[in-house]
Structure formats: C-alpha cells, structure tokens
Amino acid sequence: MADTPQPEADENWWRGAVIYQVYPRSFADSNGDGTGDLAGVRSRLPYLAELGVNALWFCPWYPSPMADGGYDVADYRDVEPVFGTLAEAEKLISEALALGIRTIIDIVPNHISAAHPWFREALAAGPGSPARERFWFRPGRGEHGELPPNNWPSQFGGPAWTRTTDQDGTPGDWFLNLFDSEQPDLNWNHPDVRAEHEDILRFWFDRGAGGVRIDSAAMVSKDPGLPDLTDEPGVPHPYVDRDELHDIYRGWRSIADSYPGARILVGEVWLPDAERFARYLRPDEMHTAFNFDFLACPWEPARLRTSIDTTLAAHAPVSAPATWVLCNHDVTRTVTRYGRADTGFDFATKAFGIPTDLELGTRRARAAALLTLALPGSVYLYQGEELGLPEVEDIPLDKLQDPMYLRSADTNPGRDGCRVPLPWGGSASPFGFSPAGTTAEPWLPQPADWASRTADAQAADPDSMLSLYRAAMRLRRAEAGLGDGSFAWLDSAPGVLAFRRSPEFVCVLNLADSPAQLPEGTVLLASGPLAEGRLPADTAVWLRG
After folding, report:
1. Do 541 and 497 form a contact (C-beta atoms < 8 A)?
2. Using CA atoms, how far apart are residues 75 and 185, in angstroms rounded to an integer?
3. By the 8 A CB rule, do 414 and 1 touch?
4. What CATH number belongs to 117-176?
5. Domain Glycosyl hydrolase family 13 catalytic: where (predicted)?
6. For a FRET experiment, which of 261, 348, 417, 498 has its CA 20 to 30 Å from that of 340?
7. 372-406, pLDDT tens digit by residue?
8. Class level of CATH domain 486-544
9. pLDDT tens digits along 249-305
C-alpha cells in the first residue's frame, strides 16, 4: 500500500505536541452494542480538532480475546471486529490527518495472545519443537516438574508461569507470562520475532500511522538463563532494562526514519534510574518516553519541583523533549487521586474505600492542567481528563473485568474505574456514548450523576474543565514560548512554583495552604477565580509579563 502523506512538513512536531490517548472500547460507540469503536472515534474527530490535539494515541485495536483489554494481541495486521475493520482504521487515520491530527498506534512487543497463530502452533507442536522456540517454554522444577521454572512474579499477581497439558493429558512444560496467563512472552532472541515486529511497523507506517507507542518497552528482553530474581546488589535484572534492548529499538528507529513526516517511537519505560532511562532516548533510538515519575508524583511543591528538575536534567544530555502526563488507562484518575490524603500514585496502594474530596481534587486537577501544558516538551492527555471525570469506584464487583482485580482475591479494584465509557451528552446513561434508543448497556456502567460532566454540558459552560482545556490549548498554540523550548525557575514564596518559558510568558502555581502574592503581568488564563492581587491555594495562572 502506498505511504499516506503526513500533515505539514514539520519534522519536529512531536517535540511539543499534545497527544490525546484514546481507549477505543470506552471512547464512542457508533453501532449501539455498548462498546466503543473506530466509527465512533471518526464521528468525534471534530471534537478532538476543536480541543486542539496534535495526535491521537490508540490503545490496541487489534483482534484480541480481550483477556487484558486488548493488550493480548492475536493479529497485528487487522482490527478487532467489535471495533470495526482494517478499512475503518485506514479511514480514521486519513480523516484525522486531514484535520492535522496524526495517529500513534500501540505495539506490544513483550507478548502476544494465547490465541495468536504462533502460540497455537507452539502448543500443538509439543515440547522441544522449533515453534516453541519463539516463546519461553521450560520444564518445571521439583520432582515431577510441578514448580515453576523460576521465581519470577506476574505483574498481575501470582507466578509468571503457566503449565501446559500435553496431548496425552499429562502436565507438560511451563511457559512464561509476565502479565496474564493468556499473554505468553515472546523470545526476542529468535530471529522470527524481530523480523515480524519490524514488518508490523512497516505495515502501519504504510497506512499513514504517525508513530508507535511501545508497551512495556523495558521488559522485552530476558536473560536466556532465566535465573531467579535476587536482591543481590550488582546483579543485572533478568528481564528489565537489559542492554540488548537498545539494538532492537535502533532497528525500529531505522525503519521509522525511512518514512517521511517524522514517524515517532514512544516508549513506556518505567525505570527509577534517570541515566538508564535517558539511554532509550538517544538520537538513534526512541523519540520520547513516558514520564512516570511526574505522573506518580504527589501534589507537593518540593516533590513536583524535584520531579520537573530531574526530568529535564535526564533529557538534556540526549537532547530529547520531556513528556508530561497526569493519568492514563492504568492509573487512578487525576481528580480522584488529588482529592486524597495520599496524592501520589502507586499500583501497590490501589485499594477499595479510600476517602476522596472530589471538590479539592478537581481544583488541583485544573491547576495541574495549566502546569503540564506550560512545561517544556510534549503532553499526553488521557480521554476524559479534559472533562474532569473522576475514578468510578462503585462499579459492581460482578461487572469488573480487569485481570488486576480478578487475580487479587478482591483486594485491588484494578483499572476499570478509569476506563468507564465517556459521557458525551444527555441526562442519563449511556450519555451519548451509544446512539439514542440503544438497548445494550455500556460495557462498564456509567455513574448516574454524570449529566453535568458530559462534553455537551461542559461546552456550554465557560467555567468547565473542558472550557479550561480548550482555552489553554489555544494559548499553547498561540504562544511561541510554549511547547518545546527554554525553561527557568523564578524566585517565589514557600509552596509556590513559578517559572518563565519566554520573556513574555510566566506560569505560577500555588500549592501552599493560603493565598500567595500574584506577580505583576497580564493574566492570560487562570485555573480558578483570582482574588485581587492574590493567587488562591491550589490554583495556577498564566501571565504575560
């Protein structure tokens, strides 16, 4: 297929872009089956263009049994029928490009679905077969092989190994799955695995994709000896941040650079070591990577300032732009998290019944929106954040579908609370998510009180979260000093963060408990009402001067 032209010839568009994350299952349902689809996204492209985003990042839209929300991919060259067709995806990419919006697709190199033809072939072929060499099949430990091959844990709880059953009905080898048991890990030492993924990149770049987001990018390569995890200092991790990963991504970058229009690689790289993190952003590897330190940072002035400084310092040696994100499809929504006593984020602390002050959380989330959109680099905006949606924490237990909950013995609520279908309009569920007259319920239930949070209601309210985001993103496009560029802290009172992005543009955020003095200058935008010459607590302001 001929390569689809990209909008404008700006090779550096990604350095200051606002990229909107679409979770297709929950964005918009065009056919009334209760599940979002690509036709639904196409119908909402004018909304996204008015919001002012530069690109859309789509969570996986491929054929999948949905054991892990689509991150268990059965076929990378097609579209899950519940979402539409490959032709629909091509139309979506093309129509978005016509509005100046690029498309970034998700690639999951660590694993595939147990329904993928490769894995089915491997199970049928039996122990020791060439088909099994694309994965990590091993005999178990113990007298009868009844114990997993090593002590690696699954990210979803329990061991990272699942035992097979041989054709004669007896227990067989084990296979590695660092995530769900329906997601067997690939062996990246096998040439078929590398060649297949490079061809997948070309397949989607040929259809106009503007980039790929690489899921669990630092976990792809494994120590072939599969040693036990150990706390012994100086021992390299057997499956996180291994040096051989960089050769894989150099190969991917070479493919991306062979296409016009700056096709980008975005890594999901969870690493505490800033120097190791930056290695993925060298000029011949990824373009950008997600900033999880900032995402998980508490609403505290010293911690936020340190996170910003650390982020900028880590990116400077490789001349890569930072990324800023408050929430995604895995993380407790911002207005809920910021309304809690513990405003940071950690998967280990997710629990039922945590008290939340949504009024406080919303005020802080509004201020955080101006903070992130004023920082140097690119911004990722998860769908529904522009509506100020809270985490839905009262989903009936029998409706929860996330394996993180299902494997937690009912102790971890999982990630479904941030994945509830969006409210577009109307006074009752499905709030415009599905067409009028639809009988099928949304795949996750929406709160009954979301009428005031719909996009239609907020578009008519100049003080709404949506109106704030629209205004901020208009100013971001108009102000030459925003996006990628210079940054300098300004002197400020305790609890206040103030910085300059250009001689004319200043951002001030008050995280103290009491109002702070408002610097001189013309107010361009504020996250909340301003007192005369004072900046209230948990409020941010953009100034010219």
Report:
1. no
2. 15
3. no
4. 3.90.400.10
5. 21-419
6. 498
7. 999 999 999 999 999 999 999 999 999 999 988 98
8. mainly beta
9. 999 999 999 999 899 999 999 888 888 999 999 999 999 998 889 999 999 999 999
